[in-house]
Amino acid sequence: MHYTDTGSGTPLILLHGFPLDSRMWDGARTGLVDHVRLITPDQRGFGRTPLGDDAPSLETVARDVVGLLDELGLERVLLGGCSMGGYVAMALLRAAPERVSGLLLIDTKAVADTDEARANRHAVAERAERDGVAPWLADAMLPVLVTDPARGGAAVRELMEAQDGASVAWASRAMAARLDSRETLRALELDALVVHGELDGLMPVALAEELAELTAGELRVLPGTGHLPPMETPDAFLAAVTPWLAAR
Ligand code: MLT
Predict the structure, then answer these.
(1) How do residues 130-152 score in pLDDT, each as one tens digit?
(2) Residue 84 C-alpha to ligand 1 middle, in angstroms?
(3) What domains sit in the chain, N to C, each tagged with a CATH number?
(4) What is the pTM of this model?
(5) If you measure from the C-alpha of residue 18 to the centroid of ligand 1, how many angstroms do you get, rounded to a whole number?
(6) SS3 for 151-217, per residue?
(7) pLDDT of residue 149
Protein backbone atom coordinates (compact mmCIF):
# COMPACT_ATOMS: atom_id res chain seq x y z
CA MET A 1 0.00 0.00 0.00
CA HIS A 2 1.54 3.31 -1.06
CA TYR A 3 1.29 6.16 1.47
CA THR A 4 2.73 9.53 2.41
CA ASP A 5 3.89 9.99 6.01
CA THR A 6 4.74 13.53 7.15
CA GLY A 7 5.13 15.42 10.39
CA SER A 8 5.32 14.25 13.97
CA GLY A 9 3.10 13.81 17.00
CA THR A 10 -0.22 11.98 17.22
CA PRO A 11 -0.69 9.89 14.08
CA LEU A 12 -3.70 10.71 11.87
CA ILE A 13 -4.59 8.38 9.00
CA LEU A 14 -6.76 10.04 6.35
CA LEU A 15 -8.59 7.89 3.80
CA HIS A 16 -9.53 9.41 0.46
CA GLY A 17 -12.84 9.46 -1.37
CA PHE A 18 -13.92 7.86 -4.66
CA PRO A 19 -12.61 7.96 -7.36
CA LEU A 20 -9.65 9.92 -6.03
CA ASP A 21 -6.36 9.17 -4.31
CA SER A 22 -4.25 10.49 -1.46
CA ARG A 23 -3.47 13.67 -3.38
CA MET A 24 -6.95 14.90 -2.42
CA TRP A 25 -5.38 15.92 0.91
CA ASP A 26 -2.58 18.00 -0.65
CA GLY A 27 -4.31 21.38 -0.19
CA ALA A 28 -4.77 20.73 3.54
CA ARG A 29 -1.56 18.76 4.12
CA THR A 30 0.69 21.57 5.40
CA GLY A 31 -1.98 22.90 7.76
CA LEU A 32 -2.62 19.41 9.16
CA VAL A 33 1.05 18.57 9.60
CA ASP A 34 1.39 21.56 11.95
CA HIS A 35 -0.71 19.54 14.44
CA VAL A 36 -0.28 15.81 13.75
CA ARG A 37 1.78 13.16 12.02
CA LEU A 38 -0.25 12.76 8.83
CA ILE A 39 -0.37 9.42 7.01
CA THR A 40 -2.34 9.35 3.76
CA PRO A 41 -2.55 5.99 1.99
CA ASP A 42 -3.68 5.32 -1.57
CA GLN A 43 -6.41 2.72 -1.08
CA ARG A 44 -6.12 -0.36 -3.27
CA GLY A 45 -6.38 0.35 -6.99
CA PHE A 46 -6.04 4.12 -6.56
CA GLY A 47 -3.02 6.36 -6.93
CA ARG A 48 0.10 4.25 -6.67
CA THR A 49 -1.36 1.23 -4.85
CA PRO A 50 -2.06 -1.82 -7.03
CA LEU A 51 -5.58 -3.27 -7.12
CA GLY A 52 -4.65 -6.89 -6.43
CA ASP A 53 -7.04 -9.72 -7.19
CA ASP A 54 -9.33 -9.93 -4.15
CA ALA A 55 -13.09 -9.70 -4.60
CA PRO A 56 -14.52 -6.17 -4.21
CA SER A 57 -15.01 -5.36 -0.51
CA LEU A 58 -14.38 -2.35 1.70
CA GLU A 59 -13.63 -4.78 4.54
CA THR A 60 -10.59 -5.81 2.47
CA VAL A 61 -9.53 -2.17 2.13
CA ALA A 62 -9.94 -1.76 5.90
CA ARG A 63 -7.71 -4.82 6.42
CA ASP A 64 -5.09 -3.18 4.18
CA VAL A 65 -5.18 -0.13 6.47
CA VAL A 66 -4.78 -2.28 9.60
CA GLY A 67 -1.81 -3.93 7.82
CA LEU A 68 -0.32 -0.47 7.29
CA LEU A 69 -0.72 0.34 11.00
CA ASP A 70 1.09 -2.91 11.81
CA GLU A 71 3.85 -2.11 9.32
CA LEU A 72 4.30 1.34 10.89
CA GLY A 73 4.15 -0.06 14.43
CA LEU A 74 1.15 2.12 15.32
CA GLU A 75 -1.00 0.67 18.08
CA ARG A 76 -3.70 3.37 17.97
CA VAL A 77 -4.35 6.29 15.63
CA LEU A 78 -6.76 9.06 14.87
CA LEU A 79 -8.65 7.75 11.84
CA GLY A 80 -10.37 9.95 9.29
CA GLY A 81 -12.05 9.47 5.97
CA CYS A 82 -13.86 11.48 3.35
CA SER A 83 -16.90 9.84 1.77
CA MET A 84 -15.74 6.36 0.60
CA GLY A 85 -12.80 6.84 2.97
CA GLY A 86 -15.37 7.22 5.76
CA TYR A 87 -17.01 3.93 4.72
CA VAL A 88 -13.58 2.27 4.98
CA ALA A 89 -13.02 3.87 8.39
CA MET A 90 -16.36 2.39 9.56
CA ALA A 91 -15.35 -1.04 8.20
CA LEU A 92 -12.09 -0.72 10.16
CA LEU A 93 -14.08 0.12 13.30
CA ARG A 94 -15.93 -3.17 12.83
CA ALA A 95 -12.69 -5.15 12.38
CA ALA A 96 -10.32 -3.49 14.82
CA PRO A 97 -11.95 -0.77 16.97
CA GLU A 98 -9.09 -0.98 19.48
CA ARG A 99 -6.77 0.62 16.91
CA VAL A 100 -8.78 3.87 16.76
CA SER A 101 -8.40 6.59 19.38
CA GLY A 102 -10.48 9.21 17.55
CA LEU A 103 -12.63 9.39 14.45
CA LEU A 104 -12.93 12.16 11.85
CA LEU A 105 -15.79 11.72 9.37
CA ILE A 106 -15.92 14.08 6.39
CA ASP A 107 -18.90 14.16 4.02
CA THR A 108 -19.78 10.55 4.54
CA LYS A 109 -22.67 8.49 5.88
CA ALA A 110 -23.42 5.37 7.93
CA VAL A 111 -26.32 3.96 5.94
CA ALA A 112 -25.92 1.27 3.28
CA ASP A 113 -27.06 1.87 -0.32
CA THR A 114 -30.64 1.72 -1.51
CA ASP A 115 -31.38 -0.80 -4.29
CA GLU A 116 -31.41 2.06 -6.77
CA ALA A 117 -27.99 3.36 -5.67
CA ARG A 118 -26.62 -0.18 -5.85
CA ALA A 119 -27.90 -0.65 -9.39
CA ASN A 120 -26.32 2.65 -10.36
CA ARG A 121 -22.96 1.58 -8.93
CA HIS A 122 -23.07 -1.65 -10.95
CA ALA A 123 -23.82 0.37 -14.09
CA VAL A 124 -20.84 2.66 -13.30
CA ALA A 125 -18.64 -0.41 -12.79
CA GLU A 126 -19.62 -1.91 -16.15
CA ARG A 127 -19.06 1.35 -17.99
CA ALA A 128 -15.68 1.94 -16.31
CA GLU A 129 -14.55 -1.52 -17.40
CA ARG A 130 -15.80 -0.96 -20.93
CA ASP A 131 -14.85 2.68 -21.56
CA GLY A 132 -12.29 3.64 -18.91
CA VAL A 133 -13.12 6.74 -16.85
CA ALA A 134 -12.43 9.88 -18.92
CA PRO A 135 -14.29 12.07 -19.50
CA TRP A 136 -17.71 10.66 -18.65
CA LEU A 137 -17.16 9.94 -14.95
CA ALA A 138 -15.98 13.45 -14.05
CA ASP A 139 -18.66 14.92 -16.38
CA ALA A 140 -21.29 13.08 -14.35
CA MET A 141 -19.84 13.51 -10.87
CA LEU A 142 -18.30 17.00 -10.81
CA PRO A 143 -21.56 18.99 -10.85
CA VAL A 144 -22.74 16.92 -7.87
CA LEU A 145 -19.49 17.03 -5.91
CA VAL A 146 -18.21 20.58 -6.36
CA THR A 147 -20.36 23.69 -5.85
CA ASP A 148 -18.09 26.08 -7.75
CA PRO A 149 -15.98 24.51 -10.53
CA ALA A 150 -13.45 27.35 -10.11
CA ARG A 151 -12.75 26.09 -6.57
CA GLY A 152 -10.93 22.78 -6.95
CA GLY A 153 -12.93 21.52 -9.95
CA ALA A 154 -9.91 21.09 -12.25
CA ALA A 155 -7.93 19.28 -9.55
CA VAL A 156 -10.85 16.95 -8.81
CA ARG A 157 -11.21 16.11 -12.53
CA GLU A 158 -7.48 15.50 -12.85
CA LEU A 159 -7.48 13.04 -9.95
CA MET A 160 -10.60 11.25 -11.24
CA GLU A 161 -9.17 10.89 -14.71
CA ALA A 162 -5.87 9.54 -13.38
CA GLN A 163 -7.62 6.42 -12.00
CA ASP A 164 -7.94 3.05 -13.68
CA GLY A 165 -11.28 1.78 -15.03
CA ALA A 166 -10.76 -1.58 -13.32
CA SER A 167 -10.18 0.08 -9.95
CA VAL A 168 -13.19 2.36 -10.31
CA ALA A 169 -15.27 -0.73 -11.13
CA TRP A 170 -13.88 -2.64 -8.14
CA ALA A 171 -14.52 0.22 -5.70
CA SER A 172 -18.04 0.81 -7.08
CA ARG A 173 -18.90 -2.85 -6.45
CA ALA A 174 -17.25 -2.72 -3.02
CA MET A 175 -19.32 0.34 -2.06
CA ALA A 176 -22.51 -1.30 -3.38
CA ALA A 177 -21.85 -4.28 -1.11
CA ARG A 178 -20.95 -2.30 2.00
CA LEU A 179 -22.74 -2.91 5.27
CA ASP A 180 -24.86 -0.46 7.18
CA SER A 181 -22.59 1.00 9.90
CA ARG A 182 -25.17 2.62 12.17
CA GLU A 183 -25.06 -0.10 14.82
CA THR A 184 -21.25 -0.19 14.71
CA LEU A 185 -21.05 3.52 15.45
CA ARG A 186 -23.78 3.46 18.06
CA ALA A 187 -22.20 0.56 19.96
CA LEU A 188 -18.70 2.07 20.27
CA GLU A 189 -17.58 4.78 22.68
CA LEU A 190 -16.09 7.14 20.14
CA ASP A 191 -14.31 10.44 20.28
CA ALA A 192 -15.60 11.81 16.98
CA LEU A 193 -15.70 14.93 14.85
CA VAL A 194 -18.07 15.11 11.88
CA VAL A 195 -17.35 17.71 9.18
CA HIS A 196 -19.75 18.26 6.30
CA GLY A 197 -20.18 20.66 3.40
CA GLU A 198 -23.49 22.49 3.71
CA LEU A 199 -24.07 22.18 -0.07
CA ASP A 200 -22.91 18.57 -0.48
CA GLY A 201 -24.89 17.50 -3.58
CA LEU A 202 -24.42 13.79 -2.89
CA MET A 203 -25.10 13.59 0.84
CA PRO A 204 -27.44 16.04 2.55
CA VAL A 205 -26.44 17.49 5.94
CA ALA A 206 -29.09 15.30 7.63
CA LEU A 207 -26.76 12.32 7.07
CA ALA A 208 -23.97 14.11 8.95
CA GLU A 209 -26.40 14.98 11.74
CA GLU A 210 -27.14 11.27 11.99
CA LEU A 211 -23.39 10.50 12.22
CA ALA A 212 -22.96 13.07 14.97
CA GLU A 213 -25.88 11.56 16.86
CA LEU A 214 -24.63 7.97 16.45
CA THR A 215 -21.11 8.84 17.58
CA ALA A 216 -22.14 11.49 20.12
CA GLY A 217 -19.58 13.58 18.23
CA GLU A 218 -19.23 17.25 17.39
CA LEU A 219 -20.63 18.41 14.04
CA ARG A 220 -19.11 21.22 11.96
CA VAL A 221 -21.08 22.22 8.86
CA LEU A 222 -19.02 24.26 6.38
CA PRO A 223 -21.10 26.99 4.72
CA GLY A 224 -21.07 27.20 0.91
CA THR A 225 -19.05 23.99 0.57
CA GLY A 226 -19.77 20.83 -1.39
CA HIS A 227 -18.81 17.17 -1.02
CA LEU A 228 -15.01 17.57 -0.90
CA PRO A 229 -14.15 20.30 1.64
CA PRO A 230 -10.39 19.51 1.77
CA MET A 231 -10.20 20.24 -1.98
CA GLU A 232 -12.89 22.90 -2.34
CA THR A 233 -12.42 25.01 0.79
CA PRO A 234 -9.21 23.78 2.46
CA ASP A 235 -8.97 26.80 4.78
CA ALA A 236 -12.48 26.32 6.16
CA PHE A 237 -11.77 22.58 6.45
CA LEU A 238 -8.59 23.26 8.44
CA ALA A 239 -10.36 25.78 10.68
CA ALA A 240 -12.94 23.09 11.50
CA VAL A 241 -10.54 20.23 12.20
CA THR A 242 -7.35 21.70 13.64
CA PRO A 243 -8.75 22.66 17.09
CA TRP A 244 -9.98 19.05 17.45
CA LEU A 245 -6.66 17.62 16.28
CA ALA A 246 -4.59 19.98 18.42
CA ALA A 247 -6.49 18.79 21.52
CA ARG A 248 -5.60 15.10 20.87
C1 MLT B 1 -17.04 9.40 -2.65
O2 MLT B 1 -17.01 10.63 -2.76
O3 MLT B 1 -16.17 8.75 -2.04
C4 MLT B 1 -18.16 8.65 -3.29
O5 MLT B 1 -18.73 9.40 -4.29
C6 MLT B 1 -19.13 8.22 -2.27
C7 MLT B 1 -20.27 7.45 -2.80
O8 MLT B 1 -20.42 7.30 -4.03
O9 MLT B 1 -21.08 6.96 -1.99
Answers:
(1) 999 999 999 999 999 999 888 88
(2) 5
(3) 3-112+179-246 (3.40.50.1820)
(4) 0.97
(5) 5
(6) CCHHHHHHHHHCCCHHHHHHHHHHHHCCCCCHHHHHHCCCCEEEEEECCCCCCCHHHHHHHHHHHCC
(7) 86
